[in-house]
Amino acid sequence: MQQKKFLLEEKEMPTSWYNILPDLPEPLPPVLHPGTGQPITPDDLAPLFPMELIMQEFHPERYIEIPEELQEIYRIWRPSPLYRAYQLEKALDTPAKIFYKYEDVSPAGSHKPNTAIAQAYYNKKAGVKRLTTETGAGQWGSALSMACMFFKMELKVYMVKVSYFQKPYRRLMMETWGATCVPSPSPDTKAGRDMLAQDPDSPGSLGLAISEAVEDAVGRDDTHYSLGSVLNHVLLHQTIIGQEAKKQFEMAGCYPDIVVGCVGGGSNFGGLAIPFVQDKINGSHKNTRIIAVEPESCPTLTKGPYAYDFGDVAMMTPLMKMFTLGHTFMPPPVHAGGLRYHGMAPLVSHLVKLGLVEPVAVPQMATFEAGITFARSEGFISAPETNHAIRAAMDEALKCRESGESKTILIGHSGHGHFDMAAYDAYLSGKLQDYAYPADKVKEALTHLPKV
Ligand SMILES: Cc1ncc(COP(=O)(O)O)c(C=O)c1O
What we know:
Layout: E1 5-6, E2 16-18, H1 42-45, H2 51-57, E3 63-65, H3 68-74, E4 82-84, H4 86-92, E5 97-102, H5 113-125, E6 130-135, H6 139-150, E7 154-160, H7 161-166, H8 168-176, E8 180-184, H9 190-198, H10 206-218, E9 223-225, H11 232-252, E10 258-262, H12 267-281, E11 289-295, H13 300-303, E12 306-310, E13 319-323, H14 346-353, E14 358-362, H15 364-375, H16 384-403, E15 408-413, H17 421-428, H18 439-446
Parallel strand pairs: 5-15, 6-7, 6-9, 7-8, 10-11, 10-15, 11-14
Antiparallel strand pairs: 1-4, 2-3, 4-5, 12-13
Helix pairs in contact: 5-6, 5-11, 6-8, 11-12, 15-16
The protein binds pyridoxal-5'-phosphate.
């Protein structure tokens, strides 16, 4: 009998998050205060985040215990399954062994709740009554809506305007869980009003929606801001994914040669990959290849410089050293809304810089072709973001077909595509297109990088 899925018992769920900071061969460059240019202090971040989350940004210890109250909520959907993709292997006629870690089982349909519930929990504990956030395609906004429902907190979500109108069902999920969702740019903040005055038809961007959510939070005493990716504490909470996967590979009696995940801000990739990077650094599995996949039209890691930049358009966030296309860059409207971000997690950027992670960029059409192959073999319909990881993993499996090697490949299956059927419709009806790399726009945006 071929075992298709590797399931951990609830009692086998990891009870700590893995913090890679003390294991890094070189420390992360400091995050800088946008006003003074000096390294930020925990107090600088206090208007936005509760102290326990801020301390996780700088934490010196390797493991951080997951509070019992959070473990209880995780157990609603965790441990998530690890699948062996036998049908995909057959469809590709490859000797590679393909596995995928399936985060779609959360109530919101992706990996995002792993950090959403942790962020809501620490804010609630600090007495915060209301959160604000941004969302692109709506995955993050819906995850945080669910988290705020669990902890009885108010939430206002600034949703990138183009997605707000393209994806009404994600908005309705947020409203079902009790959150308020407005299209960004909105008239509710100065950042939004400025953009509307400049361009009333602006489709919005994640960078702008972040500016709105931060401005809203800074302006109210009862409110904090919550970010769904990029920051160290977000990637930390996601490491439960990779830690579970390692236990599941023990059950399967093997270890991946290649780990592949898609990158927008870097959180699902970081969460899956960082526990495997740990083994690369400590020498127990030095040769594992760890691949971060991004869209060719928003190629932060493969084409951007490694430089200090803002996380948002209105220059309200601290300066982070990261691969960036420039904080004013508006990525083309690819369907993988969660990958349309100008920057990248400083941790993922650092791992790329150290040569521990390899970046690749793939075009939109090829990702949907991969998503269709996956749906027609494994059955599951994947999010357009996830299709980027599937594409790169399939390319590796096809190389194995040529070479005859039987490599073990792990895909981070970050979410389902049930609310992305319009994108599949565009592909299936021949209307989907590739977007050329917008070299001129990036060149222009890079002229606005802050001088550090
Ligand atoms: C399903 C899915 N995968 C991946 C991403 C990319 O984000 P991150 O790089 O933070 O994992 C998103 C973001 O919205 C998403 O919804």
